[in-house]
Amino acid sequence: MLSSSSLNGQSRLHSASSSYLMELSIGTPPVPLLSIMDTGSNLIWTQCEPCISCFEQTTPIFDPAKSTSFSQLSCNSPACIDLGFYSSTTCTSAKCQYTYQYADKSSTTGLLSKETFTFSSSSRSTSVPNMVFGCSSISTDSFENSSGLVGLSMGDLSLVYYLDSPRFSYCLTPFFDMSTGILLLGSGACLNSKNALSTPIIVNPAIPSLYFISLKGISIGADQLQIPSYSFDIRSDGSGGMIIDSGSTFTGLISSAYVVVREKVRSIVNLPVSKYTIDPAVDLCFESNSMPNLPDMIFHFDNGDLNLPKENYMVLVPGSGLLCLAMIEFSSMSIFGAYQQQNMHVLYDVGNKRLSFQPAQCQKSCIVPELLALHTGTSVLPQACFSYP
């Protein structure tokens, strides 16, 4: 496919119970959406009328019959053919029907379509016509009672495909915090900090749409954990390795690494272990109503170290009386999840295959209202400023 538009915009982000939701609008006239921001998937989709089996959402369900810019795609369209590499597609009255399934077995079904999407800031709106998206009428999960999901992977159907420059960045506010973060899209996305960690994005030929990163090891405080050296390697069949995924709540570590991390955390937290948990996948919780003093957990990436304060690897759920390790055990690969990225400004420079991290006070991020002039004399969207420690 060839992109017919060039998006340079931004969106506000809101923390939900297990993910981050981005603001955008769909259709003509625009209908507001609040959709999960997911760097681990390819498809953009939203619930559409008429719904067969839809979950409740906080914004109005999009009715394509009321939009003058909506159109459906045929089975032989390039987008339908592309989607067939990622999900199941079938022909229904010559229209492209899909069923897109996620790693947790949730799925959504609908008709592949085109529509105008609008991305707004306080001072300017940017509309992008003819964006390919899924118009879903059946979903098997609540998807955080969002409007749907925005894929930001390296696949041909993701939002990255429509950017004027293949780069984006976000700053995630803490979980359980009602403040808003920022998603910057296109050439306006930057990370102006000399202290940022930059590590290569690795393309795994078996799953080329996902953002793989090279993790060499993990420390807690001054102790380098004795994790087998092969634990984070991409195997010859394409399995293994580590991806970064804003759509996954907690970091998942492959078993050979998780058991070592879990045992070390259990040994340094001087609190009673609880028989209860906040989630069936979370298997280490302590009885506590406060966060104890704990050392940083350090992820040793290719080209530098990322320090995670205790708030980024332990979760204290308000009112639960539980303090839990915010990591889970995986059998086939590792995932660097959204909880570990809170209060972090993260830049995906897709064109140059670089991922950068900088700790930031994301609830203090702001939008500079003036248009900035580049050295070429052209104008770009208002930039965001971030409060770095």
Shape: globular
Spatial strand order of the main sheet: 2-3-10-4-9-8
Low-confidence stretches: 368-383
What structural category do the secondary elements indicate? mainly beta
The total count of helices amounts to 2
Number of strands: 31
**What is the average of the pLDDT values?**
90
Percent helix: under 10%
How much of the sequence lies in strands comes to: 35-45%
Main beta-sheet strand count, sense and barrel state: 6 strands, mixed, barrel
Mind telling me the C-alpha Rg?
21 Å
Distance between the termini: 42 Å
Topology:
Layout: E1 9-15, E2 20-26, E3 31-38, E4 45-47, E5 71-72, H1 78-83, E6 88-92, E7 95-101, E8 107-120, E9 125-139, E10 148-151, E11 167-171, E12 180-185, E13 197-200, E14 212-213, E15 215-220, E16 223-224, E17 242-244, E18 251-254, H2 255-268, E19 285-287, E20 297-301, E21 304-308, E22 314-316, E23 322-325, E24 327-330, E25 334-336, E26 344-349, E27 354-359, E28 366-367, E29 372-373, E30 379-380, E31 384-385
Parallel strand pairs: 3-10, 4-9, 17-25, 18-24
Antiparallel strand pairs: 1-2, 1-12, 2-3, 2-8, 4-10, 5-8, 6-7, 7-8, 8-9, 11-12, 11-26, 13-27, 14-17, 15-16, 15-20, 19-23, 20-21, 22-23, 26-27, 28-31, 29-30
Describe this structure as you would to a colleague:
- Keywords: Aspartyl protease, Glycoprotein, Hydrolase, Protease.
- Residues 20-358 form the Peptidase A1 domain.
- With 389 residues, this protein is mostly beta strands.
- Helix content is 5%, strand content 39%.
- It contains 2 helices and 31 strands.
- It has helices spanning 78-83, 255-268; strands at residues 9-15, 20-26, 31-38, 45-47, 71-72, 88-92, 95-101, 107-120, 125-139, 148-151, 167-171, 180-185, 197-200, 212-213, 215-220, 223-224, 242-244, 251-254, 285-287, 297-301, 304-308, 314-316, 322-325, 327-330, 334-336, 344-349, 354-359, 366-367, 372-373, 379-380, 384-385.
- The strands form 7 sheets. The chain has a 6-stranded mixed beta barrel. A 4-stranded antiparallel β-sheet has the order 16-15-20-21, covered by helices on one side.
- A hairpin with an 8-residue loop joins β11 and β12.
- The longest helix is centred in the last third of the chain and has 14 residues, at 255-268.
- It is globular and about 60 Å long.
- The termini are far apart.
- Mean pLDDT is 90; it is low at 368-383.
